[in-house]
Amino acid sequence: xxxxxxxxxxxxxxxxxxxxxxxxxxxxxxxxxxxxxxxxxxxxxxxxxxxxxxxxxxxxxxxxxxxxxxxxxxxxxxxxxxxxxxxxxxxxxx
Length: 94
Known about the structure:
Number of helices: 0
Number of domains: 1
CATH architecture: Beta Barrel
Helix content: under 10%
Distance between the termini: 44 Å
CATH superfamily: Nucleic acid-binding proteins
Mean pLDDT: 82
Shape: globular
Number of strands: 7
Radius of gyration: 16 Å
């Protein structure tokens, strides 16, 4: 059997406009320090997705809620909850 040509081989590169590593790209647009919640806006769809700090797992740089700031570019992943779509992982690039 012939090996696939480069045009037939699956692409190993992710769309860097849409993904940051293996995470979706987004920007923190709102932080509520008192309740430790916030909102990330998707870089592609412009959808606002909420997060609750106590239910988020951090990947990358060590992070505390106080390390986050509005307009910070982050990577993220989502999960479905009883409240709808929510951020479940935040990746802070080094």
